[in-house]
């Protein structure tokens, strides 16, 4: 798994701590900042009980791309390229949500949350993988 290449005082690379969890899972002591990375609020999850620190809906795949990937889950590589293109465009526009995510990553662990069922499957690929890689590359 790729990691960011920020340098600490020792001159060695410092790695961001990005984790994944389903939004329905109970918060854990190691979660750090809990960031919902879905465009839609998870069905049946009460906002008052969610314990979500930040909702990063602006940097999730567009509705069109999300629906396309739902219909073509076997085409992760094509999805990845399209989503990276969307993220690069947001970054070029100095998107405030991307800036906020990067600030939170500098402060400590971040757990990206999703309602996606695929997260629990072995070797599943979701938009969280792409978002993590994008954040770590900058």
Characterization of the model:
Helix 2 crosses helix 4. The strands form 2 sheets. A 4-stranded parallel β-sheet has the order 3-6-4-5. A two-stranded antiparallel sheet has the order 1-2. It has one domain. The protein contains 4 helices and 6 strands; from the N terminus they run βββββαααβα. It has 138 residues and is an alpha/beta fold. Helices cover 36% and strands 14% of the residues. It has helices spanning 63-71, 76-92, 96-107, 127-137, and strands at 6-7, 13-14, 18-22, 33-36, 54-55, 110-114. The chain is globular and about 35 Å long. InterPro entries: YeaO-like.
The strand count comes to: 6
- Number of helical elements: 4
Roughly how much helix do the residues carry, as a percent range? 25-40%
Strand content: 5-15%
Q: What's the SSE pattern?
A: EEEEEHHHEH
Please summarize the sheet with the most strands: 4 strands, parallel
Average pLDDT, rounded to a whole number, is 86
Q: Termini, distance in Å? A: 15 Å
What is the alpha-carbon Rg in Å? 15 Å
Total count of domains: 1
Structural class: alpha/beta
Strand order of the largest sheet: 3-6-4-5
pLDDT under 50 segments (min length 5)? 1-14
What best-fitting shape do the alpha-carbon axes yield? globular
* Assembly state of the chains shown: single chain
TL;DR of this structure?
36% of the residues lie in helices and 14% in strands.
């Amino acid at each position: 798994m790729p990691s960011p290449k920020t340098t600490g005082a020792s001159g060695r690379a410092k790695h961001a701590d990005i984790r994944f969890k389903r939004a329905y899972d109970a918060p854990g002591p190691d979660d750090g900042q809990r960031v919902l990375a879905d465009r839609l609020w998870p069905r049946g999850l009460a906002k008052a009980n969610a314990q979500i620190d930040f909702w990063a809906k602006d940097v999730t795949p567009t509705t069109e791309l999300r629906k396309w990937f739902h219909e073509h889950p076997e085409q992760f590589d094509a999805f990845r390229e399209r989503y990276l293109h969307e993220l690069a465009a947001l970054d070029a526009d100095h998107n405030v949500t991307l800036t906020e995510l990067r600030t939170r990553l500098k402060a400590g662990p971040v757990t990206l949350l999703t309602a996606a069922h695929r997260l629990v499957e072995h070797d599943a690929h979701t938009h969280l993988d792409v978002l993590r890689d994008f954040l770590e590359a900058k």
